[in-house]
Amino acid sequence: MTDIVVEKILSKRFLSIGTPFIRTIVKDNEILYTNVSFPNKSFERPLGMWFEVWFIPGVSNQKETGTAGRNRWSGVMQINICYPKGAGTEGPDMAFEAISEAFVRSDIVGGVRIKSVTRTSARIADDYYSVPVSVAWE
């Protein structure tokens, strides 16, 4: 399994935190996520809470020897919880709790082991409050 497959598995798990955090619409029989920004996808920042999601791949390691040997992949799924500036911290705190419940340390999600879920210091960026959350995996 490559890191590209892992990104799909972890994105699906993230989106499963569902309402009230993840907002969707149906257009042409396709579910569109209106408050989640994925790399290189069209996105218009909504009012209220929204999420930036991207992946930071690590260096692959040799897992097995021989000509059919596979690599072990690792990396970080980075999720920024973005919230209107001056609106308090309750919304981002609740979103972090939902994310940490979806990615429990040592759980295996579709063959991917979750190593940790951490958040770092929030910051004000432009007109929103941003809480960085990192999900380390291998």
Describe this structure in words.
The protein is α+β, with helices and mostly antiparallel strands and 138 residues long. The chain has 2 helices and 11 strands. The protein has helices spanning 3-15, 90-102; strands spanning 24-27, 30-33, 36-37, 50-57, 61-62, 71-72, 75-84, 108-109, 112-119, 123-125, 128-137. Strands 3, 4, 7, 8, 9, 10 and 11 form a 7-stranded mixed sheet that branches. It has a two-stranded antiparallel sheet with strand order 1-2. The protein is globular and about 55 Å long. The relative contact order is 0.20. The mean pLDDT is 91.
Chart the SSEs and their pairings.
Layout lengths: L2 H13 L8 E4 L2 E4 L2 E2 L12 E8 L3 E2 L8 E2 L2 E10 L5 H13 L5 E2 L2 E8 L3 E3 L2 E10 L1
Parallel strand pairs: 3-4
Antiparallel strand pairs: 1-2, 4-7, 5-6, 7-11, 8-9, 9-11, 10-11
Radius of gyration, taken over Cα atoms and rounded to an integer in Å: 16 Å
Number of E-type strands = 11
Approximately what portion of the residues adopt beta-strand conformation?
35-45%
- Counted by DSSP, the helix tally is 2
Q: What portion of residues is helical?
A: 10-25%
Entry summary:
The protein is 19% helix and 40% strand.
Structural key phrases:
138 residues, alpha+beta, seven-stranded mixed beta sheet, 2 helices
